[in-house]
Amino acid sequence: MKIAVVGTGYVGLVTGTCFAETGNEVICVDIDQSKVDRLSNGEITIYEPGLEKLFLRNLKEGRLSFTTSLADGIKDAVIIFLALPTPPGADGAADLRYVLGVAEDIGKLLTDYKVLVDKSTVPVGTADKVREAVAKNYNGEFDVVSNPEFLREGVAVDDFMKPDRVVIGVSSERARKLMGDLYAPFVRSGNPVIYMDERSAELTKYAANSFLATKISFMNEIAQLCERLGADVDMVRLGIGSDDRIGKRFLFPGIGYGGSCFPKDVQALVQSASQVEYDFRILNAVMDVNEKQKTHLLPKIRRYFGNDLKGKKFALWGLAFKPNTDDIREAPALYMIDELIKEGASVTAFDPEAIRNVKQVLGDKISYAENQYDALQDADALVIATEWNEFRTPDFLKMVVRMRNKVIFDGRNLFDTKAIAELGFHYESVGRNTVTGSSK
Ligand code: UDX
Fold first, then answer.
1. What is the pTM of this model?
2. Closest ligand 1 atom to 256 CA
3. What spacing in Å lies between the alpha carbon of 233 and ligand 1's midpoint?
């Protein structure tokens, strides 16, 4: 099948590459000439494990190409995916300027039947608006479909190639058949393609992300209670997660959720609700809890250092909002850094992938280390903000010889409290007892 993908950001590039991988001919369109040049020359523009290999193979075999011309991109395509940004506007609602702008432009170019697919996360009713935008300039036959993505950064290729489910909001038989054929290779293992109306599909995406964010904020509140009541959140997590109705996943407390999706989508759903005069109370609380959780370690740090952080030197492990990505959007680490610096402390950070991005934002406000151990040189304490695997079983001896104090504030509960106390560390984490090792 011939496909166009408009927008070569994170979602567009993964979508285009994965559709090419199953034999389709994909043209990706972007207004950014330098990006199109880089991609055409085989230079991948985002960090996503496993993507580069697929990207290079499909580029080489001619199934994947890039252009700045919308007209060239969509000329032969049967299906056109819109993978454009929907940033939060001033009121928190998703800004549809890019999606609707491109839809209008497509309307000017259409000469025969095509299916336009909303891949971006868009508020309920957007499919109708896209339809209107196209119809401004075109009165022939076309369909608009809502097909939200559920890709997680870091495992997006796997999520795309082997989705738990594919949600397709569609009201025409013709478009339904085309979409079904396109996705057939991805659901061979029997996972469902769930067809529904466009509005339900649009809401499904927001509901899924908001539910997951709620799960996390709920556990973060349970963790707060654990700290106050002397319970261990890891035990509570295992205790409740074994119930199938609750499930084991997404129950890990920490220093809040971040990234490009959860914060934006929860806010957008609250905003959509208020536009139809509904006060989505649970989600307001979810946002509130998450804001507070980002700075959860700070009172602990202040207390430990007698409310005086001036001149203290902190090592920080982890900058990305989660492991296996270089994405620092809404990353809790950045909030921690802000606060620590405000109080006169200095920070030396290490992250396996995100340093380059942080340098662009923070420049020399903090120092950057070449590896996790260098970051610890003369540190008064280590703060952990992201659960990269390489932080999980570090060489504690190497740590101890570098650190000024054996003190760790862990926002991701990486270590066993008993074991770390035995190594002589003072260790504070989230929702578990503080332990202080004997050889402090
Ligand atoms: C999410 C959705 O999972 C995905 O389906 C959607 O398409 C985009 O948004 P992503 O933002 O890549 O994906 O990250 P995800 O792995 O879901 O984690 C989101 C945040 O929740 C991270 O900040 C993570 O640290 C946090 N998290 C996750 C927790 O704090 N605890 C958990 O148990 C799980």
1. 0.94
2. 30
3. 19
